[in-house]
Amino acid sequence: MVIIALAASGCTQNRKKRIAVIPKGTSHEFWLAVREGAMKAGRDFNVEILWNGPPLETEYSRQIQILDSMISQRVDGIAIAAAERKALVGPVERATREGIPVTVFDSGLDTTNYLSYVGTDNVAAGRLGAQTLAALVNNKGTVGMIMHAPGSQSTMDREKGFVDAIQKEFPNVRIAAMQFGMSDRAKARAAAENILTAHPDLDGLFASSEPSSIGAALAVKARNLSGKLKLVAFDTSDALIEDLRGGIIDAIVVQDPQGMGYEAVHTVVDKLNGKQPPKRIDMQAKVLRRGDVGQAPSRTAQAGTVK
After folding, report:
1. Taking the CB of the first residue and of the last residue of the chain, which one, N or C, has fewer CB atoms within 10 A?
2. Distance CA 56, CA 24 (A)
3. For residues 263 and 269, what is the distance between their CA atoms, to the nearest angstrom?
4. CB atoms near residue 52 (< 10 Å)
5. Using CA atoms, how far apart are residues 180 and 190, in angstroms rounded to an integer?
6. CB–CB of 130/143 below 8 Å?
7. Which tens digit of pLDDT belongs to each residue from 79-111?
8. Cβ-contact 166, 104 below 8 angstroms
9. Cβ(236)–Cβ(254) under 8 Å?
10. Backbone angle region of 264, left / alpha / beta, with phi > 0 → left and psi within -120 to 50 → alpha
11. Which of 55, 64, 56 has the alpha carbon at shortest distance from 86?
12. CA distance 188 to 212
């Protein structure tokens, strides 16, 4: 009996640490790039990555179920991109109380009871989108915005940064309309079509997420507005890079999703090894223009290089 107990203890000590990585959704290329970064961190730090998330970013209840399941499995650590800033607070705080370190990445929560936050300064990224679009419309005219979904902290911050910058820095640019795309490219296209129908002389559009950007680009193409209406997208996919090359999109504000996934896992590993990671790690957004896309493959244009 003693030998069996010792053997079991040895197996527990020798097994790889398990870190659950829970994205907002799994259907957009942004999250595939996050997964690549997380998996690379798993290989580099010799930990097992349990990747699981809801198909759609609006499935808050499913994300909570996945998080609860990971807590019940007694994983060694968790990295989560909260789909809704309030709904995920309770489960995240429960994991923390039970001794499981939790890093929040990409999108924040209405609590500070977590290990670390890894993400883009989204207010600054939204401001960058506003500055880019304002320059494209020569600092005058009317613009619109295709937003993401209510409750998503990262995109709400981007949208706030965009609105604040337009209002404070560009007095001759007016925001004519804003509509949600609900993390769905078809709904985002319909939202863009609605705005373009109501404001046929619109000078520019800003989309605050990948699905919103794809929907906006589809609307611009359908109305043959390439070169007439200026479109600034956020995040990328192969389709968006092709639209940038083709002149449908004028610029894209890009993040580093691979780096985000990597650093989220890294913070948890540090904690498990007795180190205290920074409370916040900011990933800087950049602007990708047409002349830049020949320098990188389509998908990695958004992701940067993880080393």
Report:
1. N
2. 7
3. 10
4. 16
5. 10
6. no
7. 999 988 899 999 999 999 999 999 999 988 999
8. no
9. yes
10. alpha
11. 64
12. 5
How many whole angstroms separate alpha carbon 4 and alpha carbon 66? 33
How far apart are alpha carbons 185 and 110 in whole angstroms?
28
Question: What single letter denotes the amino acid at residue 21?
Answer: V
- Determine the Cα–Cα distance for residues 144 and 98; give it in Å rounded to an integer: 45
Please report the pLDDT score of residue 306 as a whole number.
34
Residue 79, pLDDT score: 98
Q: What is the pLDDT of residue 301?
A: 42
Torsion of CA 57, 61, 63, 69, to 10 degrees: -170
Alpha-carbon gap, residue 212 to 297, rounded angstroms: 22
Query: In Å, how far are 127, 141, 212, 220 from 134, measured between CA atoms?
Result: 10, 9, 19, 18
Q: In the numeric block, which tokens belong to residue 262? A: 């990597």
Decide if 85 contacts 108 (C-beta within 8 A).
Answer: yes
Residues in the chain, how many?
307
- Which residue type is seen at 203? D
Look at the pTM and tell me if it is higher than 0.70.
yes
Count the neighbouring beta carbons within 10 Å of the beta carbon of residue 240: 27
How high does pLDDT run on average in the chain?
A: 91
Beta strands in the chain, from DSSP E residues, in sequence order: 18-22, 48-51, 77-80, 102-105, 116-120, 141-147, 173-180, 204-207, 230-234, 251-254, 280-283, 286-289
Q: What are the backbone angles phi and psi of residue 232, rounded to the nearest 5°?
A: -110, 120
Q: Where are the alpha helices (DSSP H) in 137-277?
A: 153-169, 185-198, 210-222, 238-246, 257-272
Rounded distance, CA 223 to CA 229, Å? 10
